[in-house]
Write a structure and sequence with these properties.
This protein is mainly α. It has helices at residues 10-23, 27-34, 47-56, 61-74, 80-85, 88-93, 98-113, 118-121, 126-134, 141-151, 163-173, 181-187, 195-226.
């Protein structure tokens, strides 16, 4: 069966996981600990989705969701023109830092002047799509990769600069030190053409470890209370 360009169905995800486990036996204990990976439908694509990713940079999911909800309540309709027209005080009140405001406005301006075409991005090959996105000053490699992964469902995106992913891989594979971007690229060679799913597998593994630790800490605390 040919590799799908996107992870669009549960069957695509299952095929990707099976391919990864066949290609690299180090991933088997990682997948076992995670269990069945949830299939998450793609986010909406387009301007709103891209701005939501900018908002989420270096924030928890809960904090990003709160700020983006405030932004959508203030910017009506939620369009590039309205973002450009919004003043700094309004955006700051939503919880947006000055750099994020600058990035959002750069993206809005690029869409309005035609230098950023998100409809074309949907049809481009991965490398071309990333190059088109990152040509906009407000879009860095991480933002481009997350957009391609979560909004367009691309199957083989590998965000080498994601420090959370670097840390998750270090722990999951028992590496001596956290891999830099060059090492991340080298590590991922055997995971093609399913590197998006490999990244999600490591993120889920890290979440699983955190839940297990939280549960163990709670049980230890309860045991201490019983023994006093």
């Amino acid at each position: 069966m040919p590799k799908p360009h996107r992870i669009a169905t549960r069957a695509h995800l299952d095929e990707a996981v099976a391919g990864l486990l066949a290609a690299d036996k180090r991933l088997r204990p990682v997948a076992t600990r995670v269990g069945e990976m949830p299939f998450v439908p793609r986010r909406r694509h387009g301007f709103e989705a891209l701005i939501s990713i900018v908002v989420s940079q270096q924030l928890s999911v809960a904090a990003a969701d709160t700020i983006f909800a405030r932004l959508k309540a203030k910017i009506v309709p939620f369009t590039p023109a309205q973002i450009l027209a919004a003043d700094a005080e309004t955006l700051r009140a939503c919880g947006l830092s000055a750099p994020k405001q600058k990035h959002m406005k750069a993206i809005a301006a690029a869409i309005l002047d035609g230098s950023l075409d998100l409809k074309r991005v949907r049809l481009m090959a991965d490398d071309d799509a990333r190059a088109h996105l990152t040509a906009v000053k407000g879009i860095g490699p991480w933002t481009a990769d997350i957009y391609l992964m979560s909004s367009l469902g691309r199957a083989d995106i590998w965000p080498v600069g994601d420090v959370g992913l670097q840390a998750a891989i270090t722990r999951a594979l028992g590496l001596r030190k956290r891999p830099n971007e060059k090492a991340m690229e080298k590590l991922s060679k055997t995971w093609r053409p399913w590197r998006t799913v490999a990244a999600r597998l490591f993120w889920h593994h890290e979440d699983t470890l955190r839940r297990e630790k939280k549960l163990a800490d709670a049980e230890a605390k309860a045991g201490k209370r019983r023994n006093t």
